[in-house]
Design a protein that fits this description.
single chain, alpha/beta, TIM Barrel, eight-stranded parallel beta sheet, globular
Length: 246
């Protein structure tokens, strides 16, 4: 059985190779290790292996882990990112935890983040999630509305718009995801050219375990890898123990 460290090394190798194919510097690509349904022991193992950014899908699960682990694990500083959908009623719990929210997808959510950030006297770094699939059932702002929404968000003083995020459809051949990543990058470039991002590095978050190499080739600066690092996950270890003892 492969370890978390071995899987992480393989992911880094594949990122390096994909970046070289695209004429990019592999150091420009950040791995967000998606730790959904990973217990604290597994997270600590990943950090010891070199993970510095953890991505969580659910605020409630992240809050429980954050309360025990904080921003330092085994002496190593880590950042927490929210990569899953953020409900407006969870914003007040999310802002104290996450250094970056990948899933800002509507004006109503932006208004709630602005309101809560004012109350907490903080500033929230966010990515605009774009629905590039063409499916109305998917979360994210439609490409044709993304530029206008980014412009409105960039005017808010408690949100720093740091880039964009998208999720490509799951396809049998990863290369079939390329048009979706290319559209995301084009929207990211248009927003950057319009001066809508907060000064500094603008992030392009796209690509997951099944398609991250294509995303890297198309310009991703962040890839969100869960299964590729932690292996298949169903439930947290503590929940698994409870099931076995039931």
């Amino acid at each position: 059985m492969t370890t978390i460290g071995e899987r992480l090394r393989l992911i880094k190798k594949r990122i390096h190779e994909a970046a070289e194919r695209a004429g990019r510097n592999p150091e420009d690509i950040t791995i967000v290790a998606v730790s959904k349904n990973v217990d604290e022991e597994g997270i600590a193992e990943a950090v010891r292996a070199g993970v510095s950014v953890l991505g969580e899908n659910r605020v409630q699960e992240a809050a429980a882990k954050f309360s025990n682990l904080g921003n330092t694990i085994d002496g190593k500083e880590i950042n927490w990112h929210l990569v899953g959908h953020l409900q407006r009623n969870k914003v007040r719990h999310a802002l104290p935890i996450f250094q970056l929210i990948h899933s800002l997808d509507s004006w109503k959510l932006a208004q709630e983040i602005q309101k809560v950030a004012e109350r907490l006297d903080v500033t929230a770094d966010c990515l605009l999630e774009i629905n590039v699939t063409g499916k109305a059932s998917r979360i994210g702002v439609e490409p044709e509305n993304a530029l206008a929404l980014a412009r409105d968000i960039s005017a808010l003083d408690r949100i720093r718009l740091r880039g964009v995020m998208s999720i490509a459809p799951i396809v049998d051949d990863p290369s079939e995801a390329r048009p979706y990543f290319r559209l995301t990058r084009e929207m990211w470039e248009r927003m950057g050219d319009a001066g809508l991002f907060y000064p500094g590095k603008a992030h392009l978050s796209m690509g997951m375990t099944h398609d991250f190499e294509i995303a890297v080739e198309e310009g991703a600066t962040m890839v969100r890898i869960g299964t590729g690092i932690f292996g298949p996950r169903e439930i947290l270890a503590r929940d698994r123990k409870a099931v076995l003892e039931a």
